[in-house]
Design brief:
about 210 residues; Nitrile Hydratase, Chain A; two-stranded parallel ribbon; globular
């Protein structure tokens, strides 16, 4: 499964969406500038920043993390992150003995309000079809080589529920502020396809 996104051709769904957008624009039903504003909002204004802030707070506030694991939707809403594709959220925590991986086997259900737009590989048939069948192999292709003693849980997002992985806090990150911790969090780590590396000193990852 290739992760060289720039080399991946547009998916059949992407081509269909583009064709539909073009047709609707030509007929005056869709304003291209409005579509661009929505895309820009989720790519730049939201991106993975919201999710990263949730993770950083969970790392530093045990009560918040407890609430987050018990009721993801309500607790994430405490930070103001609610809305499109994030109406019902479940948070799952990575630990030294458990690793969580999120996929949407049917299409590409994804929590936009928390993680922004999904990566292209998340929507690919290869990822969707293999993540459930051979999660360890898929993770290894992302550079996540887990010991056999680590349990791997695969969570299938649907139109009714979406997931947020709380990655393990990087070693050496004690003393960092919440904002600095949030800067360490990646989109892939909140999907489960990345393990955050240790921090050698404030603001610097090994």
């Amino acid at each position: 499964m290739s992760h060289d996104h720039e080399q991946d051709p547009p998916s059949e769904m992407a081509l269909r969406v583009k064709a539909l957008e073009t047709l609707l624009t030509q007929r005056g039903y869709v304003d291209p500038s409005a579509v661009d504003k929505v895309i820009d909002h989720y790519q730049n204004a939201v991106g993975p920043r919201n999710g990263a802030k949730v993770v950083a707070k969970a790392w530093t506030d045990t009560e918040f993390k407890k609430r987050l694991l018990e009721n993801g939707t309500q607790t994430i809403a405490e930070l103001g992150f609610i809305g499109l594709q994030g109406e019902y959220m479940v948070a799952v925590e990575n630990t030294p003995s458990v690793h969580n991986l999120v996929v949407c086997t049917l299409c590409s259900c994804y929590p936009w309000s928390v993680l922004g737009l999904p990566p292209s590989w998340y929507k690919s048939h290869a990822y969707r079809s293999r993540a459930v069948r051979e999660p360890r192999a898929v993770l290894k292709e992302f550079g996540v080589d887990l010991d056999q003693s680590v349990e791997v849980n695969v969570w299938d997002s649907t139109s009714e529920v979406r997931y947020l992985v709380i990655p393990q806090r990087p070693e050496g990150s004690n003393g960092l502020s919440e904002a600095e911790l949030a800067d360490l969090v990646t989109t892939n780590s909140m999907i489960g396809t990345h393990v955050l590396p240790p921090v050698s000193k404030v603001g610097e990852q090994l």
